[in-house]
Amino acid sequence: MTTFRTIDDLDSGQRLLVRIDVNVPVEDGVVQDSRRFARHAETIRELLADDHAIALLAHQGRPGRTTFVSLAQHADLLADHLGREVGFVDDTYGEDALAAVGDLESGEVLLLENVRMCEDELPEESPEAKAETEFVRTLAPKFDAYVDDAYSAAHRSHASIVGFPRVMDAYAGRVMVDEYTATTAIRDRAFDGPITLVLGGTKAEDTIPVVERLADTVDRFCLGGVVGELFLRADGYDVGYDVTGTDLFDHQWDAHQETIERTLESSGDCIALPTDLAYEGDDDERAETTVEGVTKDRPFLDVGSGTAERYADAVADSAAVFVKGALGVFEDDRFADGTVTVLSAIADADCYSVVGGGDTARSLELYELEEDDFSRVSLAGGAYVRALTGEPLVGIDVLERG
Q: Which one, of 30, 120, 121, 28, lies nearest residue 74 by Cα?
């Protein structure tokens, strides 16, 4: 269980520095709305009701990527969710930012510029080193306390995550607490029945260690996406390698072959693999093939309908289900059947359920699945994976030591 302080422990009427995570897709320069704005708006609304003055820190993209943009649009989107004005300054800790912070009054919200535009933010360094940066040393004295609501960045040892808690009173926001509680439930809670973990997506290197480390905790793993094909390859099937137009399999196989083969040998009884796969046929329609006797000559884009139904049956018989990653290319409705079938089964099941990862959460929106039908829809990716496997999260550690 956690031992960090939460916003319930704050005295009212303080000047707060609040870290949120509204890192979202950017399409043709336009920042897209997402659940992240709605979730953080709930925390901010609660803090405003307690008469706090709030300055927000957040990031968007990384230097050199098309998603690395100013947070000016984010302020407008957040204002829409809050139903009130959110100020914005295109500065993070320079004179303009400090002047805007100085003018903040109780009940007001200010968003500072993208923290990744600060040289001090990105390098992965110790909390002690981050606490000594000019960024932290300049901004921290202007506030009474720091609130971290950015659970999805809790695995990053960046200045805005780990530096401020070393020099300020630090508290966890609602998103931080709720996400951490949900994603650690697989190791912190006892369930009266089978635990099922559904793993997919393209980043097999993130999910392969999950299978190995949770083999003694999880009763069954249902695999799809890249990780499913890689395990099929280890099981002797002619899939799980790159063909023309893909660059997803071979480098991950080379890096993790030994782990995959070892895990399959030691824990194969609890690992469910696809028995059929879907691909784009010659008529551009969805087509399916069994994995028996198949030779891979084109990309596979989803698990087959038989696999999806088998996984749905496993979900229906579970006391708890955790999901990380989609089972197919759900953005294309021809190849969404696997993901949607399993998510729909989870929504209908009488079980504790956590759906994790930004892409998987987006599939709920695309196919009009109700968030309330799941115990938690987690917006975290890397932090979720680490929480599942019990790895420490530096953003949690600094709050617990604060």
A: 30
Question: Residues 297, 211, 21, 95: what is their CA dihedral angle, to the nearest 10 degrees?
Answer: -100
The CA-based dihedral angle spanning residues 331, 272, 383, 213, taken in that order and rounded to the nearest 10 degrees: -160
Instruction: Please tell me whether residue 372 adopts helix, strand or coil conformation.
Output: helix
Query: How far, in Å, are 20, 71, 120, 158 from residue 117 at the CA level?
Result: 16, 11, 9, 12
Which residue matches tokens 């949690």?
A: 396
Give strand pairing partners of 27: 30
Cα distance between residue 9 and residue 305, in whole Å: 50
pLDDT at 183: 87
- Which stretches does DSSP call E strand in 174-266? 195-199, 220-223
CA distance 214 to 113: 40
Q: Where are the domains of the chain?
A: 7-180+394-401, 184-369
Per-residue burial over 11-42, b if 16 or more Cβ lie within 10 Å, else e, is: eeebbbbbbbbbbbebeeeebebbbbbebbbb
**In CATH terms, are 7-180+394-401 and 184-369 the same topology?**
yes
Paired strand residues for 147: 18, 171
Sequence-separated (6 or more) residues with CB below 8 Å from residue 97: 89, 91, 112, 113, 139
Class of domain 184-369: alpha beta
Q: Do residues 68 and 74 lie in contact, with contact meaning Cβ atoms separated by under 8 Å?
A: no
CATH architecture of 7-180+394-401: 3-Layer(aba) Sandwich (3.40)
Q: How many CB atoms lie within 10 A of CB 70?
A: 14
Q: How many residues does the chain have?
A: 402
**Contacting residues for 19 by C-beta, under 8 A, at least 6 apart:** 56, 57, 58, 146, 147, 148, 149, 150, 153, 160, 161, 164
Helix or strand or coil: residue 106? coil
Which pLDDT tens digit goes with each residue over 359-378? 777 788 888 899 999 999 99
The model's confidence at residue 206, banded by pLDDT at 50, 70 and 90, is confident
CA distances from 154 to 143, 353, 356 (A): 21, 21, 15
C-alpha 8/C-alpha 2 separation (Å) is 14
Q: Which of 55, 71, 46 is nearest to 18 (CA)?
A: 55
β-partners of residue 398 are none
- pLDDT tens track for 23-53: 999 999 999 998 899 999 999 999 999 999 9
